[in-house]
Amino acid sequence: MLGAASLLAAPASASILDYVGECVPFARQASGIQIWGDAWTWWGQAQGKYQRGDVPEVGSVVAFAKSNALRLGHVSVVSRIIEPRVIMVTHANWSRFDGKRGQVEQDVTLFDVSSGGDWSEVKVWYRDTRGLGSTTYPVHGFIYGRPASGAKIARARPAPELTGDRPDYVGSLIDAYAR
User: Less packed terminus of the chain by CB within 10 Å, N or C?
Assistant: First the structure.
């Protein structure tokens, strides 16, 4: 398993899509949002440092809460907005590739299944089932790359490879709404 140092030490020409490891160092590099620690702590750490909210924006980090299914939480980066309750994310260490976790997945469907449409609960596309999993995951919200009022940090700049040339918009909507 590669750590943050491996991702930061990658040559400038290396693609973020080649990364193998945990979600946190990947999300930091892909979003430009400079937070460290377990994924479930990002929401709290962002307070007073970065703006936060419940509306997805391209380049923002989705901060998953700690749960039975996600003991350390999860972070992913919004790559596309399909419609108000369907977005795509790029993230690491979610699905298995040849039985192993840690790979990057680009433009993966995330579906807001919260009763209020506030992105507090989501379903995530899972490679092993080739569709949205049956598990719902609690989400704190979105961390934007803009400094919070009074914070003395630079605006985050998402990686250019955050989204692909041909994301499957129709497939994303079918995954979300076909039951």
Answer: C
